[in-house]
Design brief:
Helix content is 27%, strand content 25%. It is α/β, with parallel strands linked by helices.
């Protein structure tokens, strides 16, 4: 344990040096401008158990792994926010890693862009491992100023009503699993015993644990960047801590759908091959309406 504490600052300084060096030559290598055609919007339909028809086609637009200051510039982030708003989301979710290895001067840019998110209901987020490495309190302050609800180890419920009834949708979140900040026990204590629930978890392999609760119909994650290199017909060969089993796309884990976003940003390596950055639009489906449609 002592060795890790001694080596982490040196590793962090090296990565900061790499980030500054690559940023210096950003325009020379052609990565300075935002181009919407470089981002892919992925529609995902999810039949969510227990979802009331009042929430049928409820639209959650998710982004993950912004890593502002690496490949993603403030101009990129402004463009991403505009693309998200163009999807006309009921809710926006962000599944962690707002920054990479440098936070100086990033907070102001994050706040400026993220406060322009314009969902019908609310924007909700959890933190990732990088956010903790660079200062979770700073990121949480940005979220608060941007009007984004932090559900790391927490629950937020959305209600819809008509003349006859009231329905709820619960959005829960866990803090970074990689850094052992997650407290699913606290989440389960706060989560109402009934009503459909979605879990935000930065690290996708947490699905093996969250699915065992039988309480979540969908887990939304990031962390992996989709591996950044994808071989058609095979997938990615780049896997790491907490994204070895579910590195990209949609999976079925028990009775729960696990979805791992490719994210919008990159980390150390700025290159992607067959793995474009992703904005995911989830359309939640009520089983009651889907059963009628399928009859």
């Amino acid at each position: 344990m002592r060795k890790k504490k001694e080596t982490l600052p040196r590793a962090l300084k090296l990565r900061q040096k790499m980030q500054r060096g690559m940023t210096k030559y950003r325009h020379k290598i052609g990565y300075g401008e935002f181009r919407p055609e470089n981002f892919e919007i992925i529609p995902v339909d999810v039949i969510l158990p227990g979802l009331d028809p009042l929430f049928h086609n409820y639209r959650i637009v998710n982004i993950s792994d912004i890593h502002l200051g690496q490949w993603i510039t403030p101009q990129h982030l402004d463009g991403i926010v505009e693309m998200v708003n163009n999807q006309k989301p009921d809710m926006v979710t962000i599944t962690g890693d707002f920054v990479s290895y440098i936070i100086e001067d990033m907070e102001e840019h994050l706040e400026y862009s993220l406060k322009n998110l314009n969902p019908l209901d609310i924007s909700i987020a959890v933190l990732g491992n990088h956010d903790h490495w660079l200062g979770s309190s700073k990121i949480r302050k940005v979220l608060e100023k941007s009007g984004i609800v932090d559900v790391s180890n927490d629950v937020y419920s959305i209600q819809k009503c008509n003349k006859n009834k009231r329905a709820e949708l619960h959005i829960a979140g866990v803090d970074s699993v990689m850094l052992n900040k997650h407290r699913l026990d606290i989440v389960m204590g706060k989560l109402p015993p009934s009503g459909p629930a979605v879990l935000l978890a930065h690290e996708p392999d947490f699905a093996d644990i969250s699915s065992l609760t039988g309480r979540f119909g969908l887990q939304i994650s990031g962390h992996s960047h989709g591996g950044q290199f994808v071989i058609p017909g095979i997938g990615t060969f780049i896997r790491g801590p907490h994204f070895t089993k579910y590195p990209l796309g949609e999976y079925r884990v028990g009775e729960m759908v696990q979805y791992t976003s490719r994210g919008v940003g990159t980390n150390v390596f700025w290159f992607r091959i067959n793995c474009p950055p992703e904005i995911t639009t989830f359309h939640l489906k009520s089983p009651e309406i889907n059963n009628v449609d399928g009859a």
